[in-house]
């Protein structure tokens, strides 16, 4: 019976695959073997495989370092091979597979995949990058109290756009280095679509902040949007750049979100002074165009303010007790 | 020529007469004059000095509150000590304070009846010659002649304007008339030849109150005084005439009382500015000293009008928003004195008004003085594309009720023209 032997790494990554039709196969470092493994910890004659007409058996040839089934510490002597067995020899691993070994069902190319490929369509790509550059330019202008000409804004705009292109660029480089398809333009397309969504969520958040009073308790919902967007971006970056299981992709994306937002949260907390003499309040003000909420009257504002006195008094009393 | 010569002669003789008198006064009063020192217990050295004078035969000594404020706030950290004209040193105990008028009464131990200063019954007349006594810069006791110039106009709590050099270290020293009666207490200086004194009647009142019974605790006494003062101040302000003045297209309230003064500035001289800005601010010309890093009793109002035809509405409000990050409290206070600010914001349009604003109100509580707060309000109009008005006030050391009354009146006063 034919036998397939796979050379694999310790991480079970495939290095080479060989198909044998003879009934006796030898594995070792010596050149007379059927499968030569150039690992210094492997003996010249290390393993011998034999087919008795019904079953395949494997035998250690008295090697220095022995041969072991994965997750077992016993040296292999006349072991009956099951399809999929992994054997460690020296610092290498081999896997034995029968031709009848089942394979996972084939994955149909999903419409999702074609949606992702849409991101690298030149028109979509140009549109999202241009939109990004326009918003960046607009924000640079907003933050500049002095009058600035268009040419003065051009350099920082291009700089910012290139800066943001570094992220998809790096991911494409990493996937290329790890023997995956780089898919640079797809990464660029997806990332810029998400960067634009993040700008928009920023504007949306500002409008909500502007239109709500501090009595509005659902404001935390707004702060979740950037987290969701970042998760989506990292998830797609993984999907496009690397072959990995869905579970792993979820973990990596969540990990990156925690690293990014948790990290910046910790940095902010560490900068927070022990006592802040300045008042902290929501400073958002916008043009009346964005005001949709009805106004309150003075009386209710004043009565809302009375709660602050209670809070402050409580804080002062708590502090006194702590002393 | 003759006339000039005669004038010169008169002035020379009057100067020499004044000097003679000053010397005589000094000799007579020296035994009742003290240098008051705050000794830091840990280092054993003096941390601040001032002057003081005896006001009773049994050893009561009057000085400034700010001279002994360190002890009043942290009694475990300091000792109070006196140094008399013979170089004797001994401990003093704090008996009573008037934090609003910056006065304090301390007591030394006495074995026999001692000479002391009489407190005047009536205020001096304008132009009257007075003599200020004290120990400036630790240089030894001196006497400085000067003139009484009436009460300072711009102050809410009375202060005498004294034309004469009051220097640091003379704080708490007495100012006497020719009859050696105390008419004031050195308290502050405003540069060359301008000094300020606490009028004698404030000391008389504190002295009488102490004779009726010593305060239960200095902290409670201070709380009551701060509470009374804020009530008096805010009620006076609320009852005064609030005049609406034009600032850009807005109408802003200013309060017509001498102790609140207003100033203004604008950038109308800069033709190329993107935003035309005009600022007016009014404030109380005094505050109450509690310790070197804690002041209270201030009141400040600020208005800022901005208009622009050159930039879009979004950018205009964006630039305006950045100015809000600079909001700071009106008084100095630290972690040990106050809590952090608690804030609240909303969109508010007063009834029967034409201005729609984003309003922010913040408050923080005093840790040592219950029911006293610092408050801060900011309103920014958000109903016009190209112009906006910011109205802001801070009051320190107020009660909840008075500050909310002020808030209501203030919010209802600001409007568009």
Question: Could you give a quick summary of the protein structure above?
Answer:
The complex is a heterodimer of chains A (323) and B (417). Chain A is α+β, with helices and mostly antiparallel strands and 323 residues long. Chain A has helices spanning 111-118, 122-142, 150-177, 184-211, 219-241, 246-271, 298-322; strands at 3-8, 14-20, 24-28, 35-36, 47-51, 56-60, 67-69, 79-80, 85-89, 92-97.
Largest interface: A-B, 50 and 63 residues
- Helix run count of chain A: 7
Mean pLDDT of chain B: 88
Total helical segments of chain B: 6
**Proportion of residues in extended strands of chain A:** 5-15%
- The 3D shape of chain B can be described as elongated
Low-confidence stretches of chain B: 1-14
User: Structural class, from helix and strand content of chain A?
Assistant: alpha+beta
- Oligomeric category: heterodimer
Biggest sheet, spatial arrangement of strands of chain B? 16-17-20-24-23-22-21
Strand element count of chain A = 10
**Helix proportion range of chain B:** 10-25%
What are the segments of chain A in which pLDDT stays under 50 over at least 5 consecutive residues? Answer: none
């Amino acid at each position: 019976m034919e036998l397939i032997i796979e050379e694999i790494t310790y991480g079970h990554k495939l290095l080479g695959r060989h198909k044998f039709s003879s009934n006796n196969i030898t594995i070792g470092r010596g050149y007379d073997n059927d499968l030569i493994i150039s690992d210094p910890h492997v003996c010249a004659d290390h393993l011998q495989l034999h087919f008795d007409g019904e079953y395949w058996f494997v035998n250690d040839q008295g090697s220095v370092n022995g041969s072991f089934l994965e997750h077992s510490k016993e040296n292999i002597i006349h072991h009956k091979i099951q399809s999929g067995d992994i054997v460690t020899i020296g610092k290498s691993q081999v896997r034995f597979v029968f031709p009848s070994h089942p394979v996972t069902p084939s994955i149909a190319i999903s419409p999702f995949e074609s949606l992702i490929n849409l991101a690298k369509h030149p028109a979509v790509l140009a549109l999202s990058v241009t939109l990004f550059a326009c918003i960046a330019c607009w924000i640079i202008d907003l933050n500049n109290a002095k009058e600035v000409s268009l040419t003065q804004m051009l350099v920082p705009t291009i700089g910012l756009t290139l800066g943001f292109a570094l992220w998809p660029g790096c991911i494409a480089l990493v996937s290329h280095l790890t023997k995956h398809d780089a898919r640079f333009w797809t990464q660029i397309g997806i990332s810029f679509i998400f960067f634009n969504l993040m700008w928009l969520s920023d504007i949306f958040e500002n409008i909500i902040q502007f239109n709500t009073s501090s009595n509005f308790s659902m404001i935390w919902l707004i702060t979740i949007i950037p987290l969701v967007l970042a998760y989506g971006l990292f998830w797609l970056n993984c999907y496009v750049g690397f072959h990995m299981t869905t579970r792993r992709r979820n973990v990596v994306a969540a990990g990156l979100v925690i690293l990014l937002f948790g990290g910046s949260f910790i940095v902010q907390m560490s900068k927070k002074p022990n006592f802040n003499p300045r008042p902290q309040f929501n400073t958002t003000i916008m043009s009346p165009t964005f005001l949709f909420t009805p106004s309150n009257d003075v009386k209710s504002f004043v009565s809302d303010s009375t709660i602050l006195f209670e809070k402050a008094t409580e804080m002062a009393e708590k502090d006194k007790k702590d002393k | 020529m003759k006339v000039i010569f005669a004038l010169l002669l008169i002035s020379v003789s009057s100067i020499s007469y004044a000097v003679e008198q000053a010397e005589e006064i000094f000799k007579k009063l020296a035994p009742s004059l003290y240098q008051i020192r705050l000794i830091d217990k840990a280092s054993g050295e003096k941390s601040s000095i001032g002057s003081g004078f005896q006001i009773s035969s049994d050893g009561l000594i009057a000085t400034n509150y700010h001279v002994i404020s360190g002890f009043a706030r942290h009694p475990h950290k300091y000792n109070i000590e006196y140094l008399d004209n013979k170089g004797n040193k001994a401990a003093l105990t704090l008996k009573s304070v008037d934090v609003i008028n910056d006065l304090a009464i301390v007591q030394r131990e006495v074995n026999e009846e001692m000479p002391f200063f009489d407190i005047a019954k009536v205020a001096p007349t304008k132009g009257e010659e007075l003599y200020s006594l004290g120990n400036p810069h630790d240089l030894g006791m001196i006497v400085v002649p000067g003139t009484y110039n009436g009460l300072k106009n711009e102050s809410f709590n009375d202060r005498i304007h004294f034309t004469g050099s009051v220097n640091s270290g003379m704080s708490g020293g007495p100012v006497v008339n020719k009859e050696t009666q105390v008419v004031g207490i050195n308290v502050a200086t405003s540069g060359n030849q301008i000094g300020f004194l606490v009028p004698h009647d404030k000391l008389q009142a504190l002295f009488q109150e102490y004779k009726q019974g010593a305060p239960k605790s200095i902290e409670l006494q201070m709380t009551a005084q701060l509470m009374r003062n804020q009530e008096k101040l805010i009620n006076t302000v609320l009852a005064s005439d609030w005049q609406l003045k034009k600032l850009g297209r807005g109408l802003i309230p200013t309060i017509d009382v001498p102790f609140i003064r207003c100033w203004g500035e604008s950038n109308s001289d800069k033709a190329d500015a993107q935003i035309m800005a005009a600022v007016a601010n009014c404030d109380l010309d005094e505050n109450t000293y509690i310790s070197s890093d804690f002041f209270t009793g201030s009141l400040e109002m600020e208005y800022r009008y901005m208009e622009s035809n050159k930039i879009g509405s979004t950018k205009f409000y964006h630039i305006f928003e950045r100015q809000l990050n600079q909001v700071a409290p009106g008084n100095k206070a630290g972690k040990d004195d106050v809590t952090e600010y608690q804030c609240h914001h909303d969109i508010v349009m007063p009834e029967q008004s034409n201005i729609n604003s984003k309003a922010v109100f913040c408050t923080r509580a005093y840790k040592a003085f219950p029911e006293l707060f610092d408050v801060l309000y900011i309103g920014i109009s958000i109903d016009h594309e190209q112009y906006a008005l910011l109205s802001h006030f801070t009051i320190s050391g107020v009660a909840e009720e008075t500050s909310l009354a002020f808030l209501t009146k203030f919010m209802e006063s600001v409007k568009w023209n």
